[in-house]
Amino acid sequence: MYADQRAVERKAEASGSSRLWDRLTQQSGLYCNTGLNQDQVEFLSQRRHVYLLPSGCLNVSAINGRNLDYIAESIHRALTTSL
């Protein structure tokens, strides 16, 4: 699971996100707190169909090679889109 978290961090940084993504790799367990606010979480679920807990926690066990790029891009968009 750590590898998945690290992969999301690398992809998000590569997409130009200025956000510090080390919080993804410093946490362990099935969920990690992304630090996204409620508007960003709603953006992800309503516009990108990426579902987090209302608190901004991401289920990292759902990340795989097929959706990794999409999740990282979606998080980047949630951070950079005017909501």
Automatic annotation (TrEMBL):
Query: A single Gene Ontology molecular function, please?
Result: L-aspartate:2-oxoglutarate aminotransferase activity
Q: Which residues does UniProt assign to the signal peptide? A: none
Q: Name one GO cellular component term.
A: cytosol
Say which domain of life the source belongs to: Eukaryota
Keyword terms of this UniProt record = Aminotransferase, Pyridoxal phosphate, Transferase
Q: Which cofactors does this protein require?
A: pyridoxal 5'-phosphate
BP terms from Gene Ontology: aspartate biosynthetic process
Tell me the subunit arrangement.
Homodimer.
**Protein known as:** Aspartate transaminase
Q: What is the lineage of its organism?
A: Eukaryota, Metazoa, Chordata, Craniata, Vertebrata
